[in-house]
Queue: 3 jobs
Job 1
Amino acid sequence: MDELTRMTAVELAGQIAAGQVSAAEVTQAHLDRIAAVDPALHAFLHVDADGALAAAKTVDERRAAGERLGPLAGVPLALKDVVVSKGLPTTCGSKILEGWVPPYDATITRRMKDAGIIILGKANMDEFAMGSSTENSAYGPTRNPWDLTRVPGGSSGGSSAAVAAFQAPLAIGTDTGGSIRQPAAVTGLVGHKPTYGGVSRYGLIAFSSSLDQAGPLARTVLDAALLHEVIGGHDPADSTSIDAPVPALAEAARSGAAGDLSGLRVGVVRELGGEGYQAGVLDSFRQAVALLAELGAEVVEVSCPHFDYALPAYYLIAPSECSSNLARFDAMRYGLRLGDEDDASLEEVMSRTRAAGFGPEVKRRIILGTYALSSGYYDAYYGQAQKVRTLILRDFAAAYERVDVLVSPTSPFVAFGIGERVADPMAMYVNDLCTLPASLAGVPAISVPCGLSASDSPTPLPVGLQVMAPTLADDRCYRVAAAVEAALDARRGHPFLADAPALTGATAHTGATR
Ligand code: GLN
C-alpha cells in the first residue's frame, strides 16, 4: 500500500503545506487505492477522479502562490451520498434519485471545498440513511475491511469502510439515531455526532429533520476534530442552526492526548449495558472505564431510567418525520419517473414511481410514520413519543448535574455478518440502543475505538466507547476520546488501525503492517 494512504489527515496536510508532497500526488494515491480495493468493498457509489485532481491542482497552485492554507488543505475525503454536491450525482442510496445531479452545494460541502478538502466521491449508505448495515442501499451492500463477510455498520457504512480501508483519511457521515457512531465503532474509527444544530443541515437530504446531523469520521480523534471545525458553525440557511461559536475542538483533542483527566466526572449509564450485549463488547467497555479512572477521572454509575424507552420513541418519531420528508419524491421534481410511456394519470405516475423507487425499509417507515401521524392515532403514538423524548432530555439534565460526561458502549454488538439481520427489522433496530438517547436529546456524542473483541467472532473485531456530553460541549467528547486513544496507542505501541487486516489488492489478508 502506498505510504501516503496510511497517513493521518494532519500528517498529510503538514507534508502538503511544507511542500514535501503535492496535493495532486496525495489525491492520486487515494484514487489508486480506491481502484485497487473498492471492487471488493463497494464503499463508493461515485468516484470523481477528474474533479478531485482538479481541486488538488488548485490547492497546489494556491500553495505555490504563497497563500496560507487551512489545516486540512489538500486532504482527500469521502462524502456520504446524502449530502448534496454540485455537479456530482447524489442518490441517497435510493433508486428514486438515480441520475439526479444537484445544482447546488450543501453548506458543509461548500465549507469543505473552501477549506481545500478534496472530495474523492460519494459514499454508499442505507437508502435515505435508514439502517445500521448499509445493506439497505439500492446499489448493493458495502463490506467491512476487517472482515469482508461482515457489514461496516450503517447507515454511513460507505464512509466508514472508505476510511478504515485507507481509501480516504476522512469522511462525512450523518447521524439520525447512530449512523456515524455505530459504523465508526464496528470499523475501528472515530466518529462524532455533533450537538444538534451545531452543523448546518442545508443541503442534507432530510430523513428525520429534528434528529439529522452531519459529522466527521476519521482514523484519529484530532483528524475528526479538525474536520468538525471546518463544517461546524452557524448557517443562516438552516433555521435550526445554533448561532454560537464552535468550541475549540482540535485544542481539546490535543489537550486530551496529554492523558490527564483528573477533575473530570464520568458517569457510566446503568441502562446501557448488560443483558443482550455481546460479552467481548462489555469486556472492552469495562477496560475502557478502568482506563478512564487510571487517567484520573472520577467514575460513578448513573441511572437514566427513560433511556429504556428511547428505541420505541425513536421508531415513532423518525418514521413520522420521514413520512413527511419523503413526500417530496413524487416523480415531478427529481430523479425517477415512471408511467409517461403509457400516459398514466398523475396519481398513477406517483404511485408507480414510488413503488419502484423506494426499497422495503423506506416503505415500511413511510407506512409506519403515516399511521403514527394520522388523526385519532397521533396522540397515542407520535404525541406520546415526544413526551418520552422530553423525559430522556430530563434524564440527561439530571445526570449532567452530577457528571461532566456519560459513557457507554457505542453498540451492543461488533460487526455482524452480511445477510444476518437484514430480514428482521427489530434485529437491525437494536444496533442503536446506545446511540438513540443522545440523538433524541440533541446532545453531542463520540465513538472512539476502545479495544478488540475476541469472543464475539472468529477474528478480533473493533469495539467503540461512546462519550456523551451536554449540548454544545462537543469539546469534552474530543478531549476524553483523545485521552483514551493516546493511552491505548501507547499500550499497543501503534495506532489502532494497524491491527486491521488491511486490504491489499482486491483481497483481504490478516496481519499487522507496522
Ligand atoms: N439505524 C437507525 C435507523 O435506521 C439510525 C439511522 C441513522 O442514524 N441515519 O434509523
Job 2
Amino acid sequence: MKYIVWACLFLGSLSGYTQIKTAKPDIVLVVHGGAGTILKSQMTPELEKAYTDGLTEALKKGYSILEKGGTSLDAVEAAVKLLEDNPLFNAGKGAVFTNEGKNELDASIMDGKTLAAGAVAGVTTVKNPIAAARAVMEKSNHVMMTGAGADKFAAQAGLEIVDPSYFFTEQRWKALQEVKKEDSTKTELDHSGKKSSSYHFINKDSKFGTVGAVALDQSGNLAAATSTGGMTNKRFGRVGDSTIIGAGTYASNNTCAISCTGWGEYYIRLVMAKTISDMMEFGKMTLKNAASEMLMKRLPALGGDGGLIAVDGKGNIAMPFNTEGMYRGFMKDGKITVKIYKD
Ligand code: ASP
C-alpha cells in the first residue's frame, strides 16, 4: 500500500512537472514607428490610417511567425523589415537626410537568449539595414560594422543591395531644406526649440519614424530590433542610439527586450535600454517602473525626449514616451492594439 501511495505521489508530481514544462508563455509582439510632436490637429484621417495600417501590417507579420512557433528574433526582424520598406517611417526607404543630403542608416538587433547582437551604422546601399545587423550577428565575429565596410559585408552576405537613390522621398528631402533654412537662422535652438549649447537638431515632425520591434516567443525567448535614418540634418559620421547595443536596443531573457526612439544622444548618455534591464535584474524593479523612471524622469531631466517599447519575460508590455505622441502597437492573445497619441 505504502508503495502505491508513493508511486501515485511520484506520478502526480511528474505530470504536474510536465504541465509546467510544456505550458507555453504568451507570445507578444510590440512595434514602434517613432516618437515626437505628433498632434491629432496636424494629422489627416488618411495619414492616420496609413500609419495605423503600416504598424498593423508589421504586427500581423511578426505575430504570425510567433504563432507558428517561430523565434522572437525572426519576428522582430520581419516586422522591422516591413516598416523599413514603408516610406512613411524614418528607416530604410523614407529615411531622413543628413546635412550633406544623404541617407545614412543605423540598425541593431539582439537575441535575449544568448545575448548575441549585431549592428550596422551609416550604411547607404543595403535595402534592409536590420537584415545587415542580423548578418553581422550571425555571419561575423563582430557586433558592429560601419559605413562602406558594413555595406560590403551585407553584399557578401547575399543581402539585397540598392542604389542610394532608392531611399529618397520627396517629403524627407523637403524637410531637410526646411531644417537647413531654420538652422541657418536659429542655430542656437535645439531639438525641442529651446536654447541649446552645441547640438542644434531642429525638432521637426519629419524626423520621426525610427522603427523598432520587441517580442516574446513560445520558448520564452526575448528579442529586440531597431532601425533608423537617424535625425534630419545630422552631421557627417553621426551615429545615434539605434545602432548601439545597450542604448537604443537591448534584450536579455533575464529581464526584458527594449527598442528606443528619440533624441539619440541622450539615450546613449543614459545607456537607456541596458540601464532599464539592470534596474530590473539588480534592483528588482518591475519593467513598468524601471522604464517609467528612465523615460519619464531621467531622460527629460537631462533635456532629452522620446519613447521606447519593451516586453518582459512574462509578457508585460511598457510603451512610455514623454513626447506628444508615439506610433506604437502590440499584439497579444491574437488581438491588435495600435495607438498614436497620448491616451
Ligand atoms: N533615436 C534616433 C537617433 O537618434 C532617432 C529617432 O528615434 O527619432 O538616431
Job 3
Amino acid sequence: MKERRVRVRFAPSPTGPLHMGGVRTALYNYLFAKKHNGDFLLRIEDTDQTRYVSGAEEYIVDALNWCQMSIDEGASVGGENGPYRQSERKPMYKQYADQLIESGSAYYAFDTPEELTEMRERMKAAGVSSPQYNAITRSGMKNSLTLPAEEVQRRLLANEKHVIRIKMPRNEDVKFEDIIRGWVSVNTNNIDDKVLFKSDGMPTYHLANVVDDYLMNISHVIRGEEWLPSAPLHVLLYQSLGWAEQMPQFAHLPLILKPDGNGKLSKRDGDRLGFPVFPTNWTNPETGEESSGYRERGYYPEAFNNMLAFLGWNPGTTQELFSMQELVEAFSLDRVGKAGAKFDFDKTNWFNQQYLRMQSGEQLAPQLKPFLASAQLEAEDSYIAQVCELMKERATFVQDILKEGRYFFEAPTSYDEKTIKKKWKEQTPEVIKELRDLLAALPSFDAESIGACFKAFLEAKGLGFGAVMPGFRVSVTGLGAGASMNDIAALLGKEEVLNRIDIALKTIKK
Ligand code: GLU
C-alpha cells in the first residue's frame, strides 16, 4: 500500500491567547510533520462565533512565528485546501449534515431551550444525575424520529428553528487505536446525540473538525487529552460519512500539570507562582487585562521550545539541549507518554541560561544594546561584546548582564553597605592606595598582569586575600561580589580603575 503523505494540523479556536499547552500541541504537530517530510497546517476553528475574541488569531500566528514553526498551509499563508478559517468554509458543511440525515445517521431536532430544560429536569427528578439527549430520551422529544414526516417537512419549510443531531447507535463499542494510548473503546450508551449543525447555520466543532480533516487530507490528528472524549464521536462520523479508509490516526497528548500538586496547569498557577503561561504578551481586548509572555520576559524561543518538547516527550537518552533541527530528527510519538507532565519553571530558566551561554559575546552584544539604551548607557560594540562574554555565565537573561554588571558602563554611585561594614577596616584606605599605585605602574594592564601584581602585593604585605579583595572590588564596582576582579579591571582599563579607586577613597566613610 502506498504510504500516506503526513499532513497534520494545529486547529486552535480563536477564543483568547494560546496557552503554553497549545503551543506544545503545535510543536509536536510541527516536529512530527517535519520529521516525516510532511505538511504542517494551521486551521482556525471559529465556528462558535459567541466565543470569538478579536486579535486572538493574529496572536496565534505571531506566537507560532516566534517559536519558529513555519506553517505550510493555513489561515495566515494560504494553500490549496483553503480557506483555512472555518467561518469562511460555512457553505461546505451543510451537504455533509444532509448526507448524514439521508443515511439515517442524523436527524432534525426542533426542541426549544425550554423543552430541553424540562426534559433535563424530568430526568433529574427521576434520579438521572447527568441527563442527556440520547437513545432513550430522544423518543420523548420533538425531532424527525418522533414527528410525522409531513410535520417535519412543514417545520423545515417554515424555517422553524432546528438543529441536526447525530443518532448515536445503541450499545455499540466504538474502538480506535490511539498512537499514545493504545486501544480505546467506548460504548455508545455513554455518548449523547451531539448537535452537529446549529440553528444559526453553522456546524459545531465536531462536524466541522471531521469534515475539514477529511477535505484537507489530514493523516494524523495530534491534540490535547481533553479531546479524547470526542474521538469516538469523530470515529463514528468518519464511518457514517463513508470515510473510514481516510480516517486519520489519533494521538492524544498528555496534560501539562501544575508545578505543585495535581491538576492541569492554568493561568492562575502562573499568576500565583510568578511565571507566564502564554508564549507572548497578551492584552485582553475586553478587560484590558495584561498577561505576560515568555518572549517579552526575555526567553529565547529555542529555549522555550526545548522546554516544551520535554513536557511529555523524552529522547530516551541523557541529552537535554536540542536545536529545532535536532528535535525534528529525534522526535517520535512513540516516546510521548500517557502520564501528565509536570511543568517546572526552574528548568525553563535553566534552558534559557544554556541557550544564552551558547552564544558568543558578539552575538549577545546587539541583544544587550536596547537595554543599555533604555538605561541611557552606551559603549563601543566590541566593549559590550567583551562584557557579555565575561558575564554570560552569571546570566539567565541577557538583561541580567546589565543588572549584574552595570559598573561596566558607569562608575558606582554607591558602595555596598554590608561590604563596607564588614570589610572596610581602618587600614583599608591605605592598603587600597598602595595597591592602586602598584597597578598604576603596570606596563601592561591585562588580567594576568593584574592578577600577578595583586598576588605579589599580598605576599609582600603579608596580607590575606580577604583583607584586600573586598575593598578593591567595592571601590571599583560598588559591589561585594561578582566576576573575577582581574578580568573586570582589565576590561575597564587602567585609567578608569585608578579613577574609581581615587573617588572611592574620597567617598567611602565608615
Ligand atoms: N478547535 C479545537 C481546539 O481548540 C481543536 C481540537 C482538535 O485538534 O481537534 O483545541
